[in-house]
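Request: How about a record?
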Amino acid sequence: MDFGHHRVVITAAGRDFGRTLAIEFAARGAEVHLSARTLEAAARVREEILAQGHDGGRVHAYACDLADPASVREFAAAVAARTDHVDVLLNNGSRYQHGRDLLSASDEDVADTLASGATGTVLVTKAFLPLLLESAKPDIVTMISGCGETGNHRSDAHDAFYAAKSAQSGFTEILSRRLRDRGVRVISLYPPDFDNHDPLSPQWEDAPRTAKDPLTAQSLVDCIFFAIGQPRDCFIKSFTFEQV
């Protein structure tokens, strides 16, 4: 599907899967508004995209600290200064915290993990909802994690990360119900740990995948494109994956 008529906002796009999303949406023609905690990180990804021959007027970089409400508001205001609507909001940002021992993380690490993943997702969605409601095809996509599924215990993530992801899950659950009548589709993904190899690598399209291999970022991107590409009467609520 060509996304040439889509305006897409992506949080935490300075590295890892957020970078992958920005590159892939730009490759399909979307106008991309990408953020990272620092402007320098976002600008590096923008330059990568421009190096692939994309129009500089359709790739925009911003700073946004998801743990800082003022930064979230400034990000949304900066996007609103460039466009009168947003078609897709990709809530990708969430600090990962490793460790099965609750005592292994400092209080500051716990607070930042919860603030970026839980509070940040709510604030970003709230800040961009007015622009989404101006779109004829609004979608909110949130990268949650298998850690947000009830009963999941397979990850080595810290309890604080589980808490943040459970909060995201509860938020998107109620948001989906309350925004459906306004035409906004709320799509959540619950992947296990996955392989996020470089989307600019030749292996991105050609690498063979079997049932014994870990889930790849390519599969997650394909899920997102599939859900967004459906007719507007099709509300795909979530993607869940077999936990290995």
Notes: The two ends are 31 Å apart (CA to CA). The chain has two domains: 1-93, 108-115+144-244. Residues 1 and 58 are 18 Å apart (CA to CA).
